[in-house]
């Protein structure tokens, strides 16, 4: 099935585009490449992608703006690739919907591994089970559709990024259990390479903005001071 996976690479550095394309094509992924933000947006409108790799600093339209526009239309994993390593750039990228942040220079093998991990989480894996019934988690007026990667609240669908969905799914699968930021990072980002409290906090904040009636007084994702966070919600028994 990997030949059905299509990835968009957007970077103004031709050597990086060619390097990443070479390694991803070895995995039998279909690759499109863009040299600037405008071209990336045009390609996105013309094709359906399973993952998008964006350079932060691109001509015409930068990666942050491209990511912001794409997030209005898709929840596929978006990975930001940049030479910058300042914390503010990372927080900015994550706050507008990026799922991961990779700093240049990078290990191509680590990049490919991260791409595979994001694809595993995003792609619908339940099709092999043969089960006609979708697995879901239901809490009062919110339902998390595990195979479709969608969330509905009071009958309306909520658009989440891949990482936001994974974070919500993990916490909702363990209601009332308290997790530290480190535990959440290792579970959702599947990495011991870097433990990043800011990444978790940014995604928690974005989730609250989307699922809470009042994000300043959250009822679903609650802070347990001095420890971390928990998902609080009564499971539907129906």
UniProtKB/TrEMBL annotation:
MF GO annotations: phosphorelay response regulator activity; transcription cis-regulatory region binding
Family annotation (Gene3D superfamilies): 3.40.50.2300, 6.10.250.690, Winged helix-like DNA-binding domain superfamily/Winged helix DNA-binding domain
The entry's keywords: DNA-binding, Phosphoprotein, Transcription, Transcription regulation, Two-component regulatory system
Biological process terms in GO annotation: regulation of DNA-templated transcription
Subcellular location: Cytoplasm
Classification via InterPro entries: CheY-like_superfamily, OmpR/PhoB-type_DNA-bd, Sig_transdc_resp-reg_C-effctor, Sig_transdc_resp-reg_receiver, WalR-like, WH-like_DNA-bd_sf
UniProt domain OmpR/PhoB-type: residue ranges: 134-233
Ranges where the Response regulatory domain occurs: 6-119
Pfam families: Response_reg, Trans_reg_C
DNA-binding region(s), chain positions: 134-233
A GO cellular component annotation in the UniProt record: cytosol
CDD domains in the record: trans_reg_C
Modified residues (4-aspartylphosphate): 55
UniProt protein name: PhoP family transcriptional regulator
Organism of this sequence: Paenibacillus elgii
């Amino acid at each position: 099935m990997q030949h059905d996976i299509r990835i968009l690479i957007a970077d103004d550095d031709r050597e990086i585009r060619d390097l990443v394309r070479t390694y991803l094509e070895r995995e039998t992924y279909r690759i499109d490449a863009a040299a600037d933000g405008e071209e990336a947006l045009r390609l996105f409108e013309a094709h359906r992608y399973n993952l998008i790799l964006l350079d932060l600093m691109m001509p015409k339209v930068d990666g942050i703006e491209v990511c912001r526009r794409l997030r209005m239309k898709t929840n596929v994993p978006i990975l930001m690739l940049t030479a910058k390593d300042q914390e503010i750039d990372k927080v900015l990228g994550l706050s507008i919907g990026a799922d991961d942040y990779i700093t240049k220079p990078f290990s191509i093998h680590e990049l490919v591994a991260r791409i595979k991990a994001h694809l595993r989480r995003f792609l619908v894996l339940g099709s092999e089970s043969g089960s006609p019934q979708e697995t879901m988690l239901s809490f009062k007026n919110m339902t998390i559709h595990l195979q479709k990667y969608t969330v509905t609240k009071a009958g309306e669908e909520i658009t989440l990024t891949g990482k936001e969905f994974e974070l919500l799914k993990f916490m909702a699968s363990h209601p009332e259990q308290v997790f530290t930021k480190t535990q959440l990072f290792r579970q959702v980002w599947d990495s011991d390479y870097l433990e990043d409290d800011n990444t978790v906090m940014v995604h928690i904040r974005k989730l609250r903005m989307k699922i809470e009636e009042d994000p300043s007084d959250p009822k679903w994702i609650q802070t347990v001071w001095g420890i971390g966070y928990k998902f609080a919600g009564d499971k539907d028994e129906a």
